[in-house]
Amino acid sequence: MIAVIADDFTGAAEIGGIGLRRGMKVLIETSVDAVEDVDLLVLATETRSMPVEQAKKEIEKATRQLMELKPKYIFKKLDSVLRGNVYAELISQQTASKKQRIIMVPANPHFNRIIKSGVYYVGGVPLAETSFAHDPEFPVKHSDVRTIVGNNAADVVVKNVNDQLPDQGMIIGNVLTVEDLASWADKADGQSVLAGGSGFFDAVLQKDFPAKPEGESLDLIPGKHALFVLGSTFPKDEAMMNKFKDAGIEIINLNREIFQKQDTPSRSLIILADRIVAAIRENRKVAVTTICSDENARISAETTRKNVSRVVRKVFEQVEIDDLFIEGGSTASMILSHLEIKQLTPFRELSFGVIQMHTERYPGLTVTTKPGSYTWPEILTGKELTKL
Q1: What's 319's DSSP letter?
Q2: Is the N or C terminus of the chain more exposed, i.e. has fewer CB atoms within 10 Å?
Q3: How much helix, strand and coil, in percent to the nearest 5, is found in the chain?
Q4: Which range has the worst mean pLDDT, 16-25, 84-93, 134-143?
Q5: How far apart are alpha carbons 174 and 180 in whole angstroms?
Q6: Whether the model pTM is above 0.70
Q7: pLDDT band at 383 (very low <50, low <70, confident <90, very high)
Q8: Which residues pair with 43 in a beta bridge?
Q9: Residue 352 Cα distances to 20, 170, 209, angstroms
Q10: Virtual CA dihedral for 128, 134, 135, 137, nearest 10 degrees?
Q11: Distance CA 318, CA 305 (A)
Q12: Is the separation of the CB atoms in 330 and 305 below 8 Å?
């Protein structure tokens, strides 16, 4: 068995999709339990949104618990543009697992995300000049990876794949091509914590799990009772929102009162949930958004996630949902917690990072998640949805 620790839920699901692509039996958990007959166990920790000291403790605990299951290795899934408590979490995992060094490869040329001479580029633009610099929750203000990760800590070095690598410390790999990912994967050994984005994990898996042949068609027919929750703080794409509307998906935003008060009255949430339930009972597909245009009314992102999760729970108490689509890792984690879902089994990858899962907690439910910076596939936003 291979184990992965992911710092948010959609990152965990993305890793699960890679496992599916390689014919592995995958399980995603939010807490470590003994498992049998699983090739890939992915732990979603939600440490990206935690204070740094809490994140360190969570990663140390998770690493020790996973080590008791005796996996072949424990990969650390990071945010692909290095948001969150990257340095602290990796040092905690390294210490708990007693490894000598860390090999970190966050770049992914598949998405035009590369690291050249220690500078991160997205689509040819330095990271700090992209939309990631304006992320309300995790703004990226630097493009130099040593500065982003360790504030130029002495034990953090940037290397090319053909360089002589130090036996200790944290090594960040320059990556320009897909071939570079494979070459970095060849550097894996029993004394290194392997960490990075989905592209690096896929390259590491390639050695033991070659890609399986293309399987079933990706035709998708969501159930009549479908609920989308667009909870990511990443800016919404106007063209994509228009596609949702054109597909006949009713968009309902959290009301102003919810954004104004840290302790939102239950009555406000009930009213919103009742509106959603009424639409779903009429077989209308609903997308709940968390857009607040009034800076004076904005509450914390965590409180917003908590409120929308309370609304979703109230919806589930009144109507059976066939399909739940969630955008944003922190939002997904909070909603699943409110629904008391602790284990999910991925069964299909709609597109890169967009993963469908089943859970024993709700036998008739399909949960589909994606990272906030990724786009929903056309199959979910095309006009064909109006025919369903």
Answers
A1: S
A2: C
A3: 35, 25, 40
A4: 134-143
A5: 8
A6: yes
A7: very low
A8: 5, 29
A9: 11, 28, 18
A10: 110
A11: 20
A12: yes
3-state class (DSSP) for residue 215: coil
Name the 3-class secondary structure at 332.
helix
- Closest-CA residue to 128 (of 181, 293, 295, 138): 138
**Nearest Cα residue to 325 out of 387, 283, 262, 381:** 381
SS3 state at 305: helix
Gap between the Cα atoms of 215 and 18, Å rounded: 14
Structure tokens at 19: 């496992």
Note every long-range contact of 200-206, with CB atoms under 8 Å and residues 24 or more positions apart, other chains counting.
200/105, 200/106, 200/108, 201/4, 201/15, 201/18, 201/75, 201/77, 202/18, 202/21, 202/22, 204/75, 205/2, 205/18, 205/19, 205/22, 205/24, 206/22, 206/182
Residue found by looking up tokens 């040593």 in the block: 146
231: nearest Cα among 297, 169, 306: 306
Buried b (16+ CB within 10 A) or exposed e, 133-159: eebebbebebbbbbebbbeeeeebbbb
Judge contact between 362 and 339, C-beta under 8 A.
Answer: yes
* Side chain identity, residue 255: N
**pLDDT score recorded for residue 386:** 38
State how far the Cα of 11 lies from the Cα of 84, in Å rounded to an integer: 13
Burial 99-116 (b: 16+ CB within 10 A, else e): bebbbbbbbbbebebbbe
